[in-house]
Predict the structure of histidine kinase.
Amino acid sequence: EPIELATFINQVIEPYSEIAQLDDKQFTTNLAATGTVMFDRQRIHQLLVILLDNALKYTEPGQAISLETSIKNKQLIIAVNDTGRGISDEGKKHVFDRFYREDKSGSRATGGTGLGLSIAQWIVDIHKGKIVVEDFKPQGTTFRISLPIK
Ligand code: ATP
């Protein structure tokens, strides 16, 4: 399905920027990717929802979330950054596993099944893309997706 990137991304993030505002979290975007791509709209929407839900869930008021898009070497790059509590090196090895949740204090209180990121990984796989998790410096987490553009 042809997706006009700027319109699509803005639709997806609209409710999140509102929730962020209510939670006193700064939500910013840098949407450099423009044009039309052929993706499964519902699944890419779900992918972004998983990452944005987590970014909100694992940040506190006063912290920040940002979403960046760009196009490089015929790949759409989407990065979701947050300045939240971050993920341990051990956790980074497992976050895409089914039912994995970091067992830190606060983790249980935030709820969740630990399925979100395994579904995200699956959606990226069926688009023949890649998803990686990195530290966001000086504090927080980045999830970076690359999706080949046909
Ligand atoms: P749900 O299935 O509702 O998404 P979940 O958030 O526990 O529940 P995942 O989305 O798969 O499940 O995330 C797995 C684990 O990775 C989380 O429990 C959390 O420990 C960690 N995690 C994911 N995103 C972040 C983030 N942005 N910052 C810190 N930790 C994160």
